[in-house]
Structure formats: C-alpha cells, structure tokens
Design goal:
The complex is a heterodimer of chains A (159) and B (553). Chain A has 4 helices and 9 strands. By secondary structure, chain A is of the alpha+beta class. Chain A folds into 2 domains: 75 residues, 2-Layer Sandwich (Alpha-Beta Plaits); 75 residues, ACT-like. Chain A, domain 2 (Alpha-Beta Plaits). Classes of the chains: A alpha+beta (159), B alpha/beta (553). Bound molecules: thiamine diphosphate. The site of thiamine diphosphate has 19 residues of chain B, from helix 17, helix 19 and helix 21.
Chain lengths: 159, 553
C-alpha cells in the first residue's frame, strides 16, 4: 500500500536528516520526499510517500509525531487531494521531429522551456499518471535526460 | 552579560542540578571552569562512558535528571554507549559535550566529531548550539524534554566559541515546543472500557514494566492490584515496582523469567500492561504470547502501542494519572480461584537442579537476598548474574534495582552504583557483577575511591563470560566455548587493595554468609569475590522461537 503524509516540521537545520534517518533505521520505505518552506518561514512541509502495510503506516505516523521538531502529521488520501509532480525532460529533437514533439507537449499542456540545436527541454507538471504518460510518449524520440520531483499534495477544500 | 559557560551553569542551577559527572578536554575548559565556580558538585570520572552511566544511576535512584559532561571528539564518542544505554531504558539524562568552535565545525578539525548526527538515533532529542543566544532556551528545553512524557537522554553539543561568547539572554522562563505535547491524561471512554473489562475478567494479570518506576506510581499499582485481586508479573525493567514479599507479586517474566509469571501470562484472560514495550525478551514468540488474553496496553508513548503487539484497548497517558483515573472507576473485586491457581504456580516447579559441586551464583544470590536490607539499592552488570539477580532478589525498594535492561551494557554496574550512591549517600548500594563485566566497569572504582563512596561490589567470578558461554552451550555446534573462558584473570584482591577497598572472598557455601555479613557492614568500599562454578546455566530459559510457557528447566 502506498500512502502520502504531509509533515509539518520546524524549519531547523538537521530536521531533514532526522526524518530521513528515522525512515532508514526503522526500515520504512520512502518512495519520495519533497520538502520546502511554507507560508510561515519558521516551518517547512514535507510530502512523504511511503510504501507499507497498515501496521507500518501507523508506525510511520507515530514515529514521525514522536520527533520533537515534527509539528503535525496529516494523512493525504489520493482521492481527497490534489497531487502534482514536476518533470524536466530533455528530448532529442531535430528538424524532422521537432514539430511532432511540440504537438505532444501541447496535448499534455506541457511547456518547452529550452531549445537547443539537437534537443528540447520539456517541462511537465501533473499527477503520477500524467507524468508517466508524457514520458512514454516522448520515449520514441530519445530521452537524453530526465529529472523529476517527488509528489507534493494538498487536501481538497470542503465542497 | 554572561559567557555561554556561565549561562549554562546558571541554567543547571535553575534546574536544581546538584551534581555533574565530568571529564575534561580542550573543548570544555570553559564549561568546567564555570562549573567550578558554582555550588554544583563536580565528580571527576575515569572514563566518559562511566560519566553517563553514573548520571543514569543517579537518575534512576533519585527520580531526577542526571547530568554528565565530556569534551569533543573521543570524549564525546566515549559517551555513546552510555547514551544508548539510557535511551533504551528511557532514563532522563542530559549529556553535555564540548565541540570545536563553530567556524571549525565541518572541517574535520582536531577532535571534531558530528555528535548530533551520531546520537540522533539514541537520544530523545539533541542540540548543536551555534549561537550563545540560544543556549539558555536550549538547556531549558532539554530538561523539559528529558523528564516529561517518556523520559530519555538529551544531548547538548556546545562549541567552544559559544561557551566563550557573551550574551544577555541568560534566562528563559517559558518555553513552547509546538511539536512536543505529551498526552498525559487518559481518554475517559477508554478508561471506562478498561474498567468494564476488569469487571468481566476471571483471570486478570498485571504486567508492570519500567514505566511504573519512571512515573513513580508503585503505590497506585499496588492499590490497583489489591483492590482487584490481580497478580502482578514484572518485566525485567519493572522489578522493584512491587516487592516480592507481596502475596500478589509473581516476579520477573520473560525469556529468563520465573515459571509462575510466565505461566500466568499464558493462562490469563486479561492483561493490563503498564509501561512496557513488549520487547521480544519479555514476550518470547509474540505469536504465542498470552493466547487467551485481551490486552490493555497503557503507556505514555503512543508509538509503543501496537508496535510489537496488538492491543485490544490502547490507552495513552502518564501512568500515575491514568491509574488514578482508573482507580476511581473500580469497585473492589475478588478472584479466589485464580489466586489459588497462582499460589500453586508459585509453589512449583522447583528451581533447576544444581549440577556443580562448587559454590554457585544462585547460592550466593539467595544468601544475599536473605540478608540484604529492604532499603538497599542494587545495581547489576550484564550476564548470568544479572538474570539470577532479577529472579532471586526480593526487590523491596522501588527504584532500588538498577540494571541495563534494554541495551544490556556490560560495565554498567559499577558506575551506576557510583551514581546511585551519590544520589542516596546514606543508603547501602551493592553492585552485583561478573568477572567479565567487572573488568569493563573497573575504572570507575577510581571515582568511587576519590569520592569516598562506600559501594559494595559483589564479584561473582566464574572465570567465564558466562552468559555467552550459556548461549554457546545451547546454540553452537558441539558447545564449543570460543572466546568465553578467561584463562588468566588478574588477582582481584590486588585490585581491591589498589583501591583501598576491603577484600573478602568466599569459595564454599559455608563461607558466604559470614563474608556477606562483614561485606554489608563495612563502612567503606568493599569487594567480595565469590569463586563460583562455571557449569551452571540460567533456567528457566525460553529458546528463540518458542512461547513463554515452553520453558526449559
Ligand atoms: C559491552 C558488551 N559487550 C558484550 C556483551 C555480550 N555479553 C553479554 S553477557 C556477556 C558475559 C558477561 O560475563 P560476566 O560479566 O562475567 O557475567 P556472567 O555471565 O559470567 O555472570 C557478554 C560478553 C555485552 N552484553 N555488553
């Protein structure tokens, strides 16, 4: 089972290594971890995706809460949240393929953020499935470099 | 304006610290010098691991926070085993280390080591104090964190320039830790459910863990047991929470536990687990643990509940508060049949047969149990002697049995006794140790000598690392004893002489009693060496994958 936690932490040096250390020494599997400052400069928010059964997820949440610098741990179920990742993809592109690549990026509402002589950089945002789909569509042209963030997530507002 | 070092000392005074176990070095000169000018007692140790164990023994005997201080680098890393020992047993200590100057941090400077990194997994929290303005606040937070909720060690790493810098931030009256708010009061709905279960149970059992001693609620424990007629099994760390003289006390359970509590666990229908983390040493095969029982697990640390065992009713809170809440909800109750059964369990089966013709550790410890005053404090080292002490002593004094349960750290007994004796100067403090452990803790006899501490060291010499030898008997093909015999031990009587300690010796059962009498009465430090058989192994014993009731005798 895959699960997403939003973890609000004190914005102190060392807090990332404490959290990462906790995961490795307790044998929890991190799929991805994204961290950044929040609207309040004294706190950061981590979005952590973890793989594990219910018992493990319960321990993850409890052990996170036990850290002095962890202020709040929130469950973020996929179906109640907005999830986004960002990917930068360098695709091989010459005169003959450029047009086709541009069409694909339009369909997926991606952006071209750099044009080189022999390649393009595509910027894609979306949830996991969308990013995966873009990567698959660009593969035939030759992906030279790929970098992606982990997932960030936010619960949807009450309707 | 005060210097960082002076601010630290002022903060320690505000926390009513009366003693610091310390060892000097280049990175803590200023801290030591500021301490010297205060009213705080400084105890110079012989090894930094000893300083931490001493703070630990002090904390456990007194119920207060223990404080120790070392220099950077090797001084700090020498503390690591001590900090891990305190962490595993949830003992509130503050370990202070000097650090290289902030400008040098990260450069692999002389005697630099990343202490906050190293101790992250073995502290409740730690601080690298990079700015003198943060010092007072960090110290206040450290003391709060160390002793509240589930207690534990906190490390303060203080770079030398921070100790030397001046600031007017010398005092903090209030702290606010938004990420740390231990839940102390039990959920009333759950308390009602527990009361309900207790009213239905026919064979209830209390498992009292170290949490009872940490929370200081042995009186509530006894009141609960008596009003509901519930027998009490102890985890190793919980020993002392109820006296073995009490008719409801069953004694130590677990893989080297006594038969009665182990059987009781397996046949009860309700377990009230108080302040225990269900470590595998206590449960043995957790799948076979207490097959007929509903489990109520009460602990101040929510992460312990559901970690090792399913709890039918989880209840988070400070044990003293929760037990008082629970006591208010209960009517007195009797379980005559169950108690009759328990009585029979306690009577049989007899302890394992003696196989050696020589003096045995059991004989010595049983003799000690007879004559040891109820208010004596016992510390132990780690090994067979530790398990036998857990099984055979009477544990009449709460916080009077001080032993490294979680980490099982050899070399703990002597420094823990030094700390306990400093906490309780008028009380009798006895160390039970083996010849292996003794040689690890020995340096701290120097501290005891210098501080004129009348600790009593009962050295059970079997010329073996006995507990490992026992494991070899059980698990190694052919029972080969590799690296466990000591073939040329030192003459411990000369060691006693070197430390000005009275030396006594017993080689036969007849010699034990008179020697013990002199040993316990001696006004100064004493070492009593008993030459004991190496053949004896600790029973009952439960092997790896077996259930608690599958004991070997
Ligand atoms: C620091 C440390 N090293 C190794 C061990 C493993 N160990 C556990 S018990 C034991 C033997 C202890 O021997 P001794 O102190 O003579 O006591 P005995 O078992 O003979 O009573 C050893 C080596 C340990 N617990 N701690």
């Amino acid at each position: 089972m895959r699960h997403t936690f939003a973890v609000l932490v004190e914005n102190n040096p060392g807090v990332l290594s404490r959290v990462a250390g906790l995961f490795s020494r307790r044998g929890f599997n991190i799929e991805s971890l994204v961290v950044g400052e929040t609207e309040d400069k004294t706190t950061s928010r981590m979005t952590i995706v973890v793989e594990g059964d219910e018992k493990i997820l319960e321990q993850v949440s409890k052990q996170l809460n036990k850290q002095i610098e962890v202020i709040k741990v929130t469950d973020i179920p996929d179906d109640e949240s907005v999830n986004r990742q960002l990917a930068l993809i360098r695709v091989a592109a010459d005169q003959s393929t450029r047009q086709e690549i541009l069409q694909i990026t339009e369909i997926f509402r991606c952006r071209i953020v750099d044009i080189g002589r022999k390649s393009l950089i595509v910027e894609a945002t979306g949830d996991e499935t969308k990013i995966q789909a873009i990567i698959e569509s660009l593969k035939p042209f030759g992906i030279q470099e790929l970098v992606r963030t982990g997932k960030v997530a936010m619960l949807r507002g009450v309707k | 304006m005060l210097s960082g070092a002076e601010i630290l000392v002022k903060c320690l005074e505000q926390e009513n610290v009366e003693v610091v176990f310390c060892y000097p070095g280049g990175a803590n000169l200023e801290l030591l010098d500021a301490l010297a000018k205060s009213s705080i007692r400084m105890v110079l140790v012989r090894h930094e691991q000893g300083a931490v164990h001493e703070a630990n023994g002090y904390a456990r005997a007194s119920g207060r926070v223990g404080v120790c201080l070392a220099t950077s680098g090797p001084g700090a890393t020498n503390m690591v085993t001590g900090i891990a020992t305190a962490s595993m047993d949830s003992i509130p200590i503050i370990a202070i280390t000097g650090q290289v100057a902030t400008g040098m941090v990260g450069t692999d400077a002389f005697q630099e080591v990343d202490m906050t990194g190293i101790t992250d997994p073995i502290t409740k929290h730690n601080y690298l104090i990079k700015d003198v303005k943060q010092l007072a606040r960090s110290v206040k937070e450290a003391f709060h964190i160390a002793q509240s909720g589930r207690p534990g060690p906190v490390l303060l790493d203080i770079p030398r320039d921070v100790a030397m810098a001046y600031s007017d931030a010398v005092e903090v009256s209030k702290i606010h830790l938004r990420g740390y708010k231990p839940n102390l009061t039990g959920h009333t709905g759950q308390i009602k459910q527990v009361a309900q279960l207790l009213s239905e149970a026919r064979r209830p059992l209390i498992i009292a863990g170290g949490g009872i001693l940490l929370a200081g609620c042995w009186e509530e424990l006894q009141a609960l047991a008596e009003s509901q007629e519930i027998p009490v099994a102890n985890t190793f760390m919980g020993l002392g929470s109820i006296s073995m003289d009490h008719p409801l006390a069953l004694g130590m359970m677990g893989s080297y536990g006594l038969a009665a509590p182990n059987y009781a666990v397996q046949s009860c229908d309700l377990i009230l687990a108080l302040g225990t983390r269900f470590v595998e040493r206590m449960t043995c095969n957790v799948e076979r643990f207490a097959p007929r029982a509903k489990i109520v697990h009460i602990d101040v640390d929510p992460a312990e509940i559901g970690k090792n065992i399913r709890a039918d009713i989880p209840l988070v809170g400070d044990l003293k508060i929760v037990l008082n809440q629970l006591l208010q909800k209960l009517q007195p109750r009797q379980h005559p049949e169950w108690l009759e059964e328990i009585k029979n369990l306690k009577a049989s089966p007899p302890p394992g047969p003696k196989i050696s013709r020589c003096l045995t550790q059991i004989e010595v410890l049983e003799a000690l149990a007879e004559v040891l005053p109820a208010e004596a404090i016992v510390t132990t080292d780690v090994g067979q002697h530790q398990m036998w002490a857990g099984q055979r002593l009477k544990h009449r004094r709460p916080r009077g049995f001080i032993s490294s349960g979680g980490l099982g750290t050899m070399g703990y007994g002597i420094p823990a006794a030094v700390g306990a004796q400093i906490a309780c100067p008028k009380d009798l403090v006895v160390v039970i140790t083996g010849d292996g452990s003794f040689q690890m803790g020995m340096p701290e006899l120097g501290t005891a000598k210098e501080q004129k501490l009348p600790i009593k060291v009962l050295l059970l010499n079997n010329s073996y690392l006995g507990m490992v030898k026992q494991l070899q008997d059980c698990y190694v093909e052919g029972g080969r004893h590799t690296a466990t015999p000591f073939t040329d031990n030192p003459e411990f009587k000369h060691i006693a002489k070197a430390y000005d300690a009275l030396y006594l010796r017993a080689e036969t059962a007849e010699e034990v009693e008179p020697a013990l009498a002199r040993f316990l009465k001696h006004p100064g430090m004493a070492i009593m060496e008993c030459m004991v058989a190496a053949e004896e192994n600790v029973y009952p014993m439960v092997r790896g994958p077996r259930g608690l009731d599958e004991m070997e005798f």
